[in-house]
Design brief:
mainly beta; HSP40/DNAj peptide-binding domain; Alpha-Beta Plaits; 2 domains; four-stranded mixed beta sheet; four-stranded antiparallel beta sheet; 2 helices; 11 strands; about 15% helix
Length: about 150
């Protein structure tokens, strides 16, 4: 842990500074807009961001010193990728996962969720194709999520 803590209290629209640190965060960590974190190079940062939606891969954060900016990067995570023989079967899978309040990322042909052996078994028993992969995860935010805004 190097140097003093950098306080980050706003999101920027564009990169304007010389120095850009990287903050590698999982999908769950990108939902928490307050608290201590550490950049990939070991700098301590304190998030004190307004509640304006989750952090997205590529967001740029800054504090009082505009020459120091922190780039948010989505971390690779262990996921399950789910596919089905029909759109209806994939929709049913999304419905059942939603009933369990499971975070899912939706695409036209696949669902992505955090690796969970119990859910993998449930989906396999429903005759869905389930494979493990490692990639970034951007789950749906839900009907009550707050819009993503920049300063």
């Amino acid at each position: 842990m190097k140097g003093t803590t950098i306080v980050l209290d706003r999101r920027l629209k564009t990169k304007t500074a010389n120095q850009s640190l990287v903050l590698l965060l999982t999908a769950a960590e990108r939902t928490r807009l307050r608290g201590q974190r550490q950049t990939t190079c070991g700098r301590n940062v304190l998030l004190q961001l307004p509640r304006q939606g989750v952090l997205m891969d590529g967001d740029l954060l800054a504090g009082k010193n505009p020459t120091i900016q922190v780039l948010v990067k989505a971390a690779l995570e262990d996921l399950l990728v789910v596919s089905a023989s029909s759109t209806l079967e994939l929709t049913k899978a999304a419905y059942h996962l939603g009933n369990r309040h499971v975070d899912i990322e939706l695409t036209p042909k696949e669902l992505f969720l955090l690796d969970d052996p119990v859910l993998a078994d449930l989906l396999t028993r429903r005759r869905l194709t389930v494979n493990k992969i490692k990639r970034t995860f951007s789950p749906e935010q839900g009907a009550y999520s707050i819009n993503h805004h920049h300063d």
